[in-house]
Amino acid sequence: MSASLDLFSGVQLGDVQLANRAIMAPLTRSRAVDHVPTDLMAEYYAQRANAGLIIAEATMVAEDASAFINEPGIYSQAQIEGWKKVTDAVHAKGGKIFLQLWHGGRASHPDLNEGKVPVAASAIAIQDEVHTLEGKKPYTVPRALETNEVASIVEAFKQGAINAKEAGFDGVEVHGANGYLLDNFLRDGSNQRDDQYGGSIENRARLLFDVIETVIDVWGAGKVGVRTSPLNGYNSMKDSDPVGLTRWLAENLNQYNLSYWHVMRADFLGEQQADVMTPARELYQGNLMGNMGYSKDEASSAIADTQLDVVAFGVPFLANPDLVERFKADAQLNEPKPESFYMGGAEGYTDYPAMV
User: Fold this and answer.
1) Catalytic position from the list 45, 180, 234, 352
2) Is the pTM of this model over 0.90?
């Protein structure tokens, strides 16, 4: 244990120096308008600039990749200008902010994308319902990407990375988790391809690693993070060997000298159980970020024991704009309001009180 390391000590993540190790996890809030970030979003993120790093919500790299209602994009000039207001507001408060680059994949729906059929690794639908403007509907069977189409996905992530730089972000996170397109290719429960993007772990990871490499070309490795979720069953996801997948990723991500690797340690649904953090720490030589259900005390202990370098907090940051200050003071936390997580407007978004 290192007495000098705790949640409040500074840390260097690649090329980015952070004031503390409490990271604001990416949280979809559906407050964009026509997929363009708003002034209200700038206020929301600026309120939370006390985080060591803000990872902004899942952001579409292509216009036909919407999986929610009113999530933001980064493929148009209007979106770049909208995000510029956000980054300016966060930087004015002394904060750091990365953009999470994302493609919805089979979690997208035709009703959210002008009738376009979603794309995926394989033509296997999510067994659940999605919120559309006409209410809940079953997910549709996606169209398996043709081999020669995969390069266009990589190109969309590249352009998103370029646009994120123009918008003033401090770096980017590649979203390879939670059953969205890159994770959909990565795990064998949803990837039944027989080309160079299917079969072995190396083949299934090819798209994710192609995206990582092209984003590094834009930003440099020290300003790029990647998020994975080897256990999470959300969006009908499963892998036959999540620990083996974690070990493979740890060993093969080492070559990039990334800013960080962001690992979701559990299953939202509580169905798949395993320890993926121990092999991740044992094999990964870079900065490791843990996420999902960490308390302040558990996070501080994990950092002091060098099990983790930084910890991402989701819902606590959502309901507590001054979370780091509350942690320092051992103050009571605000209770979140789940009914307003995605409803739109300021209520349950920018109206959570700071400490008196």
Assistant:
1) 180
2) yes
- Domains in the chain and their CATH numbers? 56-81+99-309 (3.20.20.70)
Ordered per-residue pLDDT tens for the chain, 356 residues: 555 899 999 999 999 999 999 999 999 999 999 999 999 999 999 999 999 999 999 999 999 999 999 999 999 999 999 999 999 999 999 999 999 999 999 999 999 999 999 999 999 999 999 999 889 999 999 999 999 999 999 999 999 999 999 999 999 999 999 999 999 999 999 999 999 999 999 999 999 999 999 999 999 999 999 999 999 999 999 999 999 999 999 999 999 999 999 999 999 999 999 999 999 999 999 999 999 999 999 999 999 999 999 999 999 999 999 999 999 999 999 999 999 999 889 999 999 999 97
**To which residue do tokens 């991740």 refer?**
280
Nearest Cα residue to 9 out of 306, 341, 351: 306
Helix (H) or strand (E) holding 16: strand 16-18
Please give the helix or strand (H or E) that residue 40 lies within, else none. helix 39-47
Annotated catalytic residue 352: no
What is residue 159's three-state secondary structure?
A: helix
Q: At 71, list the tokens.
A: 């999530």
| AA identity, residue 162 | I
**DSSP 8-state symbol, 33:** B
Distance CA 347, CA 78 (A): 25
Distance CA 164, CA 154 (A): 15
- Contacts of 275 by beta carbon, 8 Å cutoff, 6+ apart: 243
